[in-house]
Structure formats: C-alpha cells, structure tokens
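Today's session is about reading a structure prediction critically. Students often jump straight to the picture, but the first step is always the sequence itself: look for stretches that repeat, for charged clusters, for runs of hydrophobic residues. Only then move on to the predicted structure, which in these notes is written as discrete structure tokens rather than atom positions. Here is the chain we will use throughout the hour.
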Amino acid sequence: MRKRTLLLSAVLLASGLTPLALAAPASAAPSGLQGDFNGDGYRDVALAAPAATVNGKTWAGQVAVVYGTASGLNPAKHQLISQNTAGIPGDAEKDDEFGDQVATADLNRDGYSDLVVGTPHEKTGSAEDAGTVVIVWGSKSGLSGGTTVKNPQTLYGSYFGLSITAGDFTGDGKPDLAISAQSDSASPSWRIRLIRGPFAKSGTTGKVSSYSPGIDKPVLTAGRVSGDTKADLVVTGQKPDRDQLATAVYYKGTPDGISKAATLRTAATAAIGDLNKDGYGDIVLGNPEEPADDPSGSTGGKIHVIYGTGSGPSATRRVSLSQNTAGVPDSSEYGDRFGQALAIGDFDKDGYGDLAAGAPGETFGDDTDYRASAGAITLLRGSASGLSMSRPVFLTQDSAGVPGAVEAGDRFGETLLASDVNHDGRADLTAVADQENDPEGAAWFLPGAASTLYSTTASTTFGPTKVGLPAHTYTEFGADLAG
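Below is the predicted structure for this chain, in token form.
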C-alpha cells in the first residue's frame, strides 16, 4: 500500500446540498481570511484523498472540502472535487493522485481564499509523471472553476506539485506559490519553482524563478520568521540520491524572490509560528526517524525548535525535544514517530503560539492488551520564554471528550492542521487518523479551549463517507490538509 504526507451547483446537488447552503449573506463582503473559500467569515478545510477512485479510475484522486461554521467544521456542508468535476482542468486518470498536495491563498486578491491542488503523477502529453497544479477559485458560493498553473518544464518524472506552499515571498501584497519539481531529465535535480502573483483565471501569473535547495523531494513550508512583511521558506526532504533525511534549509523572502540564508537541523517536517510572542516566527522541525533508518534520528522521534530573530532563525537559540525530555508527556519508544506531523496555533487565545506534535506510531498496552500504532498528539504551550513544558496535554482517542477509542493501527495524529475555523479567536486543531476504521481513515475537529487547549465538550469526528467518499475503501483520506 502506497503512502504519501467546478461548477459548484453540480457538485453540491450531487452531494445533496444547494449552492445557497454555502453562500455568505448577500450583504456581506468576503472575509479575506486564509482558507475561507466562500467568504462567510469561517475558515474551511480541504482534506486530500489522492487514492480515491473516480469513475472507475483507481488512485485518480479527489479533494473533500468541509465548510466552517460558528460551531466548527460541518461535514454536511461539503464539496468533492476531482478532475472530472465540471470546470476543473484535465480528466481523472488512473494513478494521477489528484490532491496529493493542497494549499490555500487568495491568489487573485478578490477576498475569497482559493484552493491549490497538486497532482504530481499527472501525465502531460507523452510525459508520464510530469505533474500538474490547479487553482480552484473561491467565491461567495464556494469553490468553483479551475485554472492550470503552467509547469515551467514539462518532463517525464518532473513531479511538478510534489510539494506546494503559498506566501507573499516578495512582500508586494500579491501571494506567490512555491512548488517542488524535478528538472533536466538527462540529469535530474530537484528544484523549487517560485511563481509570483498575481494569478488570474486566464492563467497569467507573475515572474517564474527556479532555485536548487540541494535536497531531494523537497517539502516546502512557508511562514514569516524575521518579522517583516515577506514570507520565508523552510525546505525539508532527503539527501540527494539517498533515503536518509537532509539538513533543512531556510530561504529568506526578498523583493526579488527568495534567498538561501541558513542551514537548520535534519528534519522531515516543519511548522512556523510565534511561540514566544516576540513578533518573530519560530521554526519547529520534526525528525520522526529511528537511528537504524537515519543516523540523525532518535528512538521514538524528536523535534527541534529554532527561535526567530529580526534577521531570521537564531544560530544559537535552538532546542531539541523528545518524549524523554522532562515535562514532555509519555516516553520515547521505538516506532512512535514523534514529530511526524506538526502544527502551530494559539489554541488557548493567550497570544502565544502553541505546538501540536503528532506521534502516529504511539503504542499502548502490554502483552495482554497491545494496541500498536494507535497514535497520539502532544500539545505544548507557548510562553514568553518559548515553548513550555508546563501543563502539557497528551491527546489520544481515550482523552476526555475525544470521540472514538484507542485502537491498534489507527495512527491518530498522522496529519495535523491548526486554523481558527469557528472564528472565536482560538486556533482549532484538525487531526487525521489515516487507518481509523481500516481502511477508511477519519478526521477529528478539536476546537481550541482556554485551559485544556482543546474542547472536551465540542470535539467531533467524521469519516470519508460523511463527505461523499465510499465506505470500506482506502482513499488516503486526510493525507494532506489545508485551510
């Protein structure tokens, strides 16, 4: 089993909804919030399902969009988007994996957030796995219609769209896209394609630049580290021509694009947010690998915290944590994969960013009650001195108010997203257990809360059938999240 991290009316009618159900009030201006596709003031969440079958085409891929409300995510208000959806470029084909990557930004600056969908295995002409990226446009009635982002170098195996992130890297007020791809089919090397905004429905964009991070299969994470108006970029991935992890690199946003400015720590995952409320974004890196699989790994996995400064990531203020660190719940055990997923958000509304770290391999029980890879999420609070070990939360499906139960193989915490869906000023956590009700998977909506960081009374869960995907089927539901 492989593992990867429109016309609205037609889609809604097919799922039993009407366009009016998703529309913002007629008198309302669009909110301008990231991830708010219909401009109603509540952020929405896109859940990738790249293994979904479409019209008999296996692994063609779909994206499920769940719309936000005052009470959080409402799976009854959803869309399913594929390359067979009216208005979306291309056609659903076997092994395309549409939705392998998703991102959000208001790319045409109309006040509605847009959805960016990567399909790295798309065939273009005779070029297998050339890849494609599509923008699905936000509007008052939700997501509708799509435009292809031109691949600067369409090649066999270019995998354009393997990783996607959005941010205003040049500080000109126009969001840009950073996209991973391979170039030069005779001597392949991985590149970052920076495509500047603005983006238009006609397909026009700003200037395109290419950068070589020296990392294979680069995974891209955007955020403001240095405190200026420009987004910065953190790149994680693999060492060239090896399965081992590479040292992450930091690119600083500049008026001309991005500039490689620092090396960080060996990592597979990253998140950026202000943990100590000093106005600079802090970088958290995850290395879930075991030492036997990667020399830089640590039993059970670990994370690195690199604090931001006015000039970028600090060269000296760097801290590493594992589940054996004093104050971090539980203990480090082989296969926990602590740091597999990371998200930063102010879950308790105290002004400090808090960290959610997934450990989908977390195992519970003993020889008589053994629940391997049930999964867990650790919540650590931000403070004036940075990430704090005070009052941590160890979150499982057996935690108070969390629907479900700890079961072997669920992999709770495989994918995470922090975003204020219900517009109460607290970040909410969307979490995925990709093997819940094997093989379906499921998602949890965990609203932020003042004392416990997540709500023990309002947390909910839903599976793929609630958003129109088939029952008892592996779709890689929630393989990536955006909102």
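Discussion point for the tutorial: Helices lie at 8-14.
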